[in-house]
Amino acid sequence: MDFGRLITAMVTPFDGDGEINWDVTSQLVDYLIEEQKSEALVVCGTTGESPTLSDEEKLQLFSFVLEKANGRCKIIAGTGSNNTKHSIHLTKEAEKIGVDGVLLVVPYYNKPNQEGLYQHFSAIASETSLPVMLYNVPGRTGVSMSVDTTLRLAKISNIVATKECASVDQVTLIASACSDDFRVYTGDDSAGLASLAVGGYGIISVASHVVGAQMSEMIYAYTSGNVQRAGEIHRQLFPIFKGLFECPQPLPNPSAVKYALSLRGLPVGGVRLPLISPTEAEGVFIEALFH
């Protein structure tokens, strides 16, 4: 399974009552595929506010986005959690719906050791025929999956990729030792070009909601050998990559990018508590990133 090089971790649009806005979700899928050049969409990942979505909402989103995309891009369902049994259940339900793959986050809060991580992911993978992408994001989970554990899991036939957010060093080490058919993605927009340079395959992005077309150009400039052009684009986009998370104080994802989408005429709504929307001053800062 090739999920492509530019993958968007899609926001979940909400209406004024905090319920899923299906009309805007439909618009967003078209926009991300046609205008922002997303080659795959992660549905119900961190940026999709998965912690505050019910299982019923997640399954509705998987089905809706899959039908709307209609083969124009791959659909990756966020089915991971810190409960192995529950992750297996949700993965099986996603497989029935027909998604192209699943994203499984490192279990959070309960802080398993490396053997526990291996057994968690291998147990889920053994219960599905879908391609599995691992997701290591220690800043959110409280534990980091080691390079060795990732490489061990990569030997399982349907574990085909990882979204690595620990560091470019970790991307480097995994890419240096994994097989050619195991894909290493960064989940850090600002590290995208550096990750490609050390053997990463692509980017699972938040900023691609608003600068995806430019990011796609950067990736394909690099992979076609035009390193100078790729560097130029990265430098142009770097303030946006950083600003969406640091505006002007750290703002939890996806608050800033949802605001940025509203500036583009896509009323994706606010965020569910405990996240909060940008303040007026933060909104001014976000708007200034695009001028």
TrEMBL record:
Its main location: cytoplasm. It catalyses: L-aspartate 4-semialdehyde + pyruvate = (2S,4S)-4-hydroxy-2,3,4,5-tetrahydrodipicolinate + H2O + H(+). Transmembrane segments: none annotated. It comes from the Bacteria. This is 4-hydroxy-tetrahydrodipicolinate synthase. The record marks 46, 109 as: Part of a proton relay during catalysis. The gene is dapA. InterPro entries: Aldolase_TIM, DapA, DapA-like, Schiff_base-form_aldolases_CS. Pyruvate binds at residues 47, 204. Pathway: Amino-acid biosynthesis; L-lysine biosynthesis via DAP pathway; (S)-tetrahydrodipicolinate from L-aspartate: step 3/4. It comes from Paenibacillus etheri. GO terms for biological process: diaminopimelate biosynthetic process; lysine biosynthetic process via diaminopimelate. Its EC number is 4.3.3.7. It is found in: Cytoplasm. The active site is at residues 135, 163. Belongs to the DapA family. GO terms for cellular component: cytosol. Keywords: Amino-acid biosynthesis, Cytoplasm, Diaminopimelate biosynthesis, Lyase, Lysine biosynthesis, Schiff base. SMART domains: DHDPS. Homotetramer; dimer of dimers. Catalyzes the condensation of (S)-aspartate-beta-semialdehyde [(S)-ASA] and pyruvate to 4-hydroxy-tetrahydrodipicolinate (HTPA). One of its GO terms (molecular function) is 4-hydroxy-tetrahydrodipicolinate synthase activity.
